[in-house]
Amino acid sequence: MAVQINPSILSADFARLAEEAKAVEGADWLHVDVMDNHFVPNLTLGVPVVESLARATDTPLDCHLMIEAPDRWAPQYVEAGAGSVTFHAEAAAAPVRLAREIRAKGARAAMALKPATPVEPYEDLLPELDMLLIMTVEPGFGGQAFLDIMLPKIRRTRELIRKHGLELWLQVDGGVSDSTIERCAEAGADVFVAGSAVYGASDPAEAVRALRTRAEAATAGASWACDH
């Protein structure tokens, strides 16, 4: 599977979002963190900003909804222009129905798991999804340190994907940098959200290329990729 790098605009300059999006045009997706100050203790942006951003960039938008009541709000982000919408398992009332609604509206459906949420109870839901996001920090703020204890969970998730023969993307988000991305790739991730590691660099586009190179090299030598 191809490595994908998704810069997170949570670490970008919110006053210059259109320019910041253009600075990483070599990225696969632009990761947009939506927070409501209820599900997580932070407030970021919403539908109007996503609509504006979708008009300002050709890079598809990967919206990560860290919000309560995603069953109500997620479809609006598809309508706003998101190409992928991620809701949290801990917040969704009817995750299968929501995933199907997101797909029916034309976007990729994804589900996220907080660090303390195990993947195994959701095994039967995986075929309903296009991507599963394993949080490698507690959601809510950028710039946190990577949680190494999530690596076994990434490996277990990759095993479930292989067990069921799914074409499911496995995304990691939180503390992904040049010093952690290889471990994530080796464990089984193929989609990498990077905020500070990209927008904190002097050349964000070069940072994206460097992260991709490291992840591709680690994936090439990973047992899960060789067996795929």
In short:
The active site is at 33 (proton acceptor), 173 (proton donor). The chain is an alpha/beta fold and 228 residues long. The chain is 36% helix and 18% strand.
Global mean pLDDT: 97
**Assembly state of the chains shown:** single chain
User: Helix count?
Assistant: 9
Distance between the termini: 8 Å
How many beta strands in the DSSP annotation? 8
Shape: globular
Tell me the helix content: 25-40%
Q: Outline the biggest β-sheet.
A: 8 strands, parallel
Give the spatial strand order of the biggest sheet.
Answer: 1-8-7-6-5-4-3-2
Catalogue the unreliable spans: none
Rg over C-alpha atoms, rounded to the nearest angstrom: 16 Å
* Beta-strand content bin: 15-25%
- Give me the secondary-structure category: alpha/beta
Query: Could you spell the SSE succession in H and E letters?
Result: EHEHEHEHEEHEHEHHH
Pfam family, one: Ribul_P_3_epim
Function: Catalyzes the reversible epimerization of D-ribulose 5-phosphate to D-xylulose 5-phosphate.
Enzyme class: isomerase
Keywords: Carbohydrate metabolism, Isomerase, Metal-binding
